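Data deposition worksheet. Section B asks for the primary sequence of the deposited chain exactly as it was used as input, without tags or linkers unless they were present during the calculation. Section C holds the resulting structure in token form. Section D is free text for depositor observations; keep each observation to a single sentence. Incomplete worksheets are returned to the depositor.
Section A, Depositor: J.P.
Section B:
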Amino acid sequence: MTERFKPFATVALIIEHEGRFLMVEELDEYGKKVFGMPSGHIDAKEGIIAAALREGKEETGCAIELTALTGIYDYVKDYETIYRFCFAANLKEIPEELHAADPDGEILKVSWYSRDEIYAHKDKWRTRLVGMCMDDYLRGQRFPLSLITHLVP
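Section C:
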């Protein structure tokens, strides 16, 4: 029997405050500086909503409130398949300075960017998913969080 294919399941957060968006800068697997919205993989035995809240806390250092699902993306990249769940979210409190609480130590900087600054630096996006998620968010695409049903044993 061949090994079963397992896609990557990821979450991302679009956090807007006073017309600016919270983005994280980090080094990619090749050592190149990239940026995108707070995002990451869903861990084993973790639900989609729980993963979004955890990743938000880890990458921003702040408690997060999810407000809507903005899109689900099926992204095939090289030899990978990635399913991304993107959420609109808010920080529960806006600190004077942002610091990632990143256990992996991958986050270099957490900053606020204008829409124009984000699109002006397309060449530094971690993946094309940054633009796809931002485009849908800016178009006003929102789905209720109740679209995701979490079953517990």
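Section D:
The longest strand covers residues 64-77.
Helices lie at 48-60, 115-120, 129-138.
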